[in-house]
Write a structure and sequence with these properties.
The chain contains 16 helices and 15 strands. The chain is of the alpha/beta class. The chain has 2 domains: 152 residues, Alpha-Beta Complex (Aspartate Aminotransferase, domain 1), CATH 3.90.1150.10; 275 residues, Type I PLP-dependent aspartate aminotransferase-like (Major domain) (Aspartate Aminotransferase, domain 2, 3-Layer(aba) Sandwich).
Length: 440
């Protein structure tokens, strides 16, 4: 058990995406985890309603994943993958490609979702150059989109606060589609909202403005997670695919959150029935145990890089820790757990239970929307006048103090529990939020 927070000097660690001064006045610490739960240093049991940070899909400290990491740590600590390789990296890639959409048979390993996004953007630009179409340099993102924190990711991303401090140095040649969040027409939708497919047609207007021949790729999250679990309207993703095909744009799905069972299938694109050209992943790839990301590309993209001299480097890009042995061991074991325990199917089976439970919060104080798909959900709260985000933060803090961890983004509470969740856990999580809302 870790030391009591009161005995720890909290000054040196600069926490990410956190009000450090507020946190350090009243820290929220977790010291160990197992299955569906965290425990605080004081021993309080905390139900994990967000899979750590959208990532611990197999639950915490799964014994098979834990054993695989320990075994690898005892065998080899590091393997270079610049002109050398570790056999297990190829085994992991082959295993992953068994579950990809048709036509995806190649994977480039990274260390995070941010790196996956920047890798995908670079691959998209390089792909067009390899094909002799170097004029395609523009990238299209979407308002409210979150694509990590690299300069490429925040440039195509559309969350204002993530961009503001760095706006003078974002990469050029980027434009943004409008977001799909429409409370006036779609509040309290179950599953994909009915209204808004026409928003995809704004891509035609953007293409006309810049000229279609200059656009390399369009990147969107199938479901926008960090902005508050924002769903694509029925037909929206299909229309984006059609426009991209018509004009030669690559379509990138950022599936850092939606891959590996979150929507009841290996990839969100499979659950939603639309196939992109590139898929970015991380998080659930190793169930959060060891940092790792992966970029999957359609065969046509990989093949375009393989047409030059046989001894030439095809892509001048990579990371020291690409396919790190510990990450590879965790990845292989995690994928085995998903398959052996049927967790993707379990996710699909638990989704309607989560849907009913979340929508039971309609009518509670300050609830202005509830939305869900798969094992993702959100409860949006009316902001306090002049204090945007304060109501959501207060609800998150109160829930934690009462024994339930939820995610907060602005005034929206987000839910993405481990795929091992049971109905009793769902009931406990939602009732904890109900209690908090009634006490605010």
């Amino acid at each position: 058990m870790a030391a009591n927070p009161e005995q720890i000097d909290l000054e040196s660690f600069w926490l990410p995406f956190t009000s450090n001064r507020a946190f350090k006045k009243k820290p929220r610490m977790v010291a160990r985890a197992q299955g569906m739960y965290y425990w605080t240093p004081e021993g309080q049991k905390i139900l994990d309603g967000v899979a750590g940070l959208w990532c611990c899909n197999a639950g915490h400290n799964h014994p098979k994943i834990q054993a695989a990491i320990q075994k690898q740590a005892a065998e080899m600590d590091f393997a270079p993958h610049f002109n050398f390789a570790h056999p297990a990296a190829f085994e992991a890639a082959n295993r992953l490609c068994e579950d990809t959409p048709e036509g995806f048979n190649h994977v480039f390993f990274t260390n995070s979702g941010s790196e996956s996004v920047d890798t995908a953007l670079k691959i998209a630009l390089a792909y067009h150059r390899e094909r002799g179409d170097a004029a395609r340099t523009k990238l299209i993102g979407r308002e409210k989109g979150y694509h990590g924190v690299g300069f490429g990711g925040i440039s195509v991303g559309g969350i204002i606060h993530n961009r503001r401090q760095f706006s003078a140095s974002l990469i050029p040649g980027v434009d943004h589609l409008p977001h799909t969040h429409d409370l006036s027409r779609n509040a309290f939708s179950r599953g994909l909202p009915e209204h808004g497919a026409e928003l995809a047609d704004e891509l035609v207007n953007i293409a006309t403005l810049h000229h279609p021949s200059t656009i390399a790729a369009v990147i969107v999250e199938p479901i926008a997670g960090s902005a508050g679990v924002l769903m694509p309207p029925v037909g929206y993703l299909k229309r984006l695919r059609e426009i991209c095909d018509e004009h030669g744009f690559l379509l990138i799905f950022d599936e850092v959150i939606t891959a590996f069972g979150r929507l009841g299938a290996p990839f969100g694109s499979q659950a939603l029935g639309v196939t992109p050209d590139i898929i970015t992943t991380a998080k659930g790839l190793t169930s959060g145990t060891v940092p790792m990301g992966a970029v999957f590309v359609q065969d046509k993209i990989y093949d375009a890089f393989m047409e030059g001299p046989g001894d030439a480097i095809e892509l001048f890009h990579g990371y020291t820790y690409s396919a790190h042995p510990l990450a590879v061991a965790a990845c292989k074991a995690t994928q085995d757990v998903y398959r052996e325990e049927g967790l993707f199917q379990r996710s699909a089976e638990m989704a309607p239970i989560l849907e009913d439970a979340l929508h039971s919060l309609k009518g509670e104080p300050n609830v202005i929307d509830v939305r869900n798909y798969g094992l993702m959900g959100a409860v949006e709260l009316a902001p306090i006048e002049g204090k945007p985000g304060a109501r959501g933060m207060d609800a998150m803090v109160r829930a934690f103090e009462d024994g339930t961890m939820v995610r907060v983004t602005g005034d929206t509470l987000a839910f993405s529990p481990p795929l091992i969740i049971e109905q009793t856990h769902i009931e406990q999580m939602v009732e904890a939020v109900r209690t908090v809302l009634r006490a605010q």
